[in-house]
Amino acid sequence: MASFVPTSEETLEDQRLYTQARLTEVACLDCLAKVSVKKNSEHHTSIQWNDEALRQCPEFSRMDRSPGGRPVHAACPRLVASIEAAAREGLVPIGAEDGW
Question: What average pLDDT does the segment 14-43 reach?
């Protein structure tokens, strides 16, 4: 059960901006799983996975089958490389010009 459920318009807008603003769709160059990405800096990347992308990623499937399952913060190295390539090509903007 959620301990905090935002109800004010300001809080809901902040939540939307934090989780959805400036997201760019990126497809993994290996398995073609599509995720939403935001890069606030060269070193900070937010990735929003959806159920379809999680099912499609062979790296996550392999990790899920390992003893203990997939670590919560583990990244798919193939997807990370795809995001970095997209950023180098200018397809993913880098920087939080809007504060988000």
Answer: 88
**CA 38 to chain centroid:** 7
CA 46: distance to chain centroid? Answer: 5
Domain annotation covers residue 80? yes
> Who has greater pLDDT, 41 or 82?
82
In a domain, 27, yes or no: yes
- pTM for the predicted model, two decimal places: 0.77
Range of the domain at 68: 23-88
